[in-house]
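Inverse folding, one chain.
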């Protein structure tokens, strides 16, 4: 009987953790532990777990490390031969854990996924497929009424990290989740593809069932969500597609997808995602040389990946409307202006990374590629960026000069007002002196009149 470790990554999950843990602890499998990894929650859920479920091992992270890094902490702490990842917003059905362990007794199987249902009983996930050259993912059966049409075990491209299991042997073979998928998106798909590339199967097991409430922790239309999603998608594809497939299928499909995006938020998010991909190319190259195309020349592969990324990122450079948002009373609040200038200065800082690689044998090739990559980046990418920055700086200086001219004009006006005020005060003082003199003469005349009146009497 293999011991199982169930790892639940939690972040602000107070409304989900009670039902989730109650259902897990009610499983009839005889030997398992439960580990909750709290990812820096601020809603008191970690204290809730510590007080309400003393039999659960609680690991507290000081901050939100993202899905991959947070889950890896739990995986490293686990003692079981079967390792299970489970989302906090799930409620597993009776027999769920036993079904997963039974499926993993087949030595050809590396990862097992679950049948996930929405609370209304429709299917959310019965395995997954990558359906096009851009890496679009589809959950099999999604939104279908569950009538038993997916009640057979089947091999799939991937299963969702919301509920999956693997053996410790598989974990030792494929390694932990890739923390380069930060904060989330495609890290579970990447894990499944690494499993299949290692010669093991990824299957969907319908008898391992759970309800998935699929909480929305972010707005899917937000700029940040789109950057994270596309960053994960591009990292996944650049890790796993052979170079000829990247050129032959991905580049045309991605080019068409970019052309279909009008100027706006998603296009800017995709452009930022390409920048993230460019910065991660050395790590991706190391992976590809070890697992995907180990016989290919590192410099040739690196230059090809760089050229693809640069070409497609260039397509995202559609003309965008330029405007400076106006904030009320900013000119009257110098501390806000100074803060914004300081922020702009720090955001412009560029910190070069040292060249190093711990990979045996091919390490020097990796370092050589990085040096070549930096040289190409300087000639073909960084120099155009510098030119863009110079234009931006010129506009900024012009704007600051205009602001300075306006402030100088205001200062001149204030000085003129001050001068006028001083002159008015001087004139007023002169008037007072004159009035005092007249009053003194008047008093003297009154005295003389009184003297004359006395003589007349």
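Residues assigned per position:
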């Amino acid at each position: 009987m293999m011991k199982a470790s169930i790892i639940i990554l939690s972040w602000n999950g107070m409304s989900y953790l009670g039902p989730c843990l109650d259902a897990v602890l009610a499983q009839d499998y005889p030997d398992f532990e439960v580990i909750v990894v709290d990812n820096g929650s601020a809603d008191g859920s970690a204290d809730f777990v510590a007080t309400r479920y003393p039999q659960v091992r609680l690991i507290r992270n000081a901050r939100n490390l993202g899905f991959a890094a947070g889950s890896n902490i739990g995986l490293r702490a686990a003692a079981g031969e079967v390792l299970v990842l489970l989302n906090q917003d799930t409620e597993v059905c009776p027999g769920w854990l036993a079904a997963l362990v039974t499926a993993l007794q087949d030595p050809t199987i590396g990862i097992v996924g679950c049948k996930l249902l929405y609370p209304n009983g429709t299917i959310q996930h019965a395995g997954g497929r990558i359906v096009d050259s851009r890496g679009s993912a589809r959950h099999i059966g999604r939104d279908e009424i569950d009538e038993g049409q997916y009640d057979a075990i089947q091999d799939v491209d991937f299963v969702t990290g919301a509920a999956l299991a693997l053996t410790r042997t598989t974990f030792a073979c494929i390694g932990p989740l890739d923390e380069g998928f930060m904060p989330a998106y495609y890290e579970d798909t990447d894990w499944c593809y690494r499993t299949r590339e290692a010669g093991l199967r990824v299957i969907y097991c319908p008898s391992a069932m759970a309800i998935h409430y699929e909480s929305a922790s972010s707005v899917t239309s937000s700029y940040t969500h789109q950057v994270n999603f596309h960053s994960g998608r591009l990292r996944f594809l650049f890790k796993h597609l052979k170079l000829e497939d990247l050129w032959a299928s991905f580049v045309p499909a991605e080019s068409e997808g970019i052309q279909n995006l009008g100027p706006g938020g998603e296009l800017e998010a995709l452009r930022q995602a390409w920048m993230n991909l460019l910065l991660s190319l050395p790590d991706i190259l190391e992976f590809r040389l070890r697992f995907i195309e180990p016989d290919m020349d590192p410099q040739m592969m690196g230059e090809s990946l760089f050229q693809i990324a640069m070409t497609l990122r260039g397509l995202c450079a559609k003309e965008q409307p330029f405007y400076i948002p106006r904030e009320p009373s900013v000119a009257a609040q110098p501390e806000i202006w100074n803060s914004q200038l300081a922020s702009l200065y720090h955001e412009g800082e560029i910190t070069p990374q040292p060249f190093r690689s711990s990979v045996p044998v091919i390490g020097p090739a990796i370092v050589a590629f990085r040096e070549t990559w930096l040289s190409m980046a300087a000639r073909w990418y960084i120099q155009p960026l510098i030119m863009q920055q110079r234009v931006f700086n010129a506009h900024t200086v012009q704007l600051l000069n205009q602001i300075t001219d306006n402030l100088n004009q205001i200062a001149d006006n204030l000085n003129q007002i001050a001068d006028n005020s001083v002159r008015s005060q001087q004139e007023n003082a002169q008037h007072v002196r004159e009035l005092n003199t007249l009053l003194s003469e008047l008093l003297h005349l009154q005295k003389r009149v009184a003297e004359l009146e006395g003589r007349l009497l």
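The two ends are 140 Å apart (CA to CA). Residues 320-334, 344-352 have pLDDT under 50 and may be disordered.
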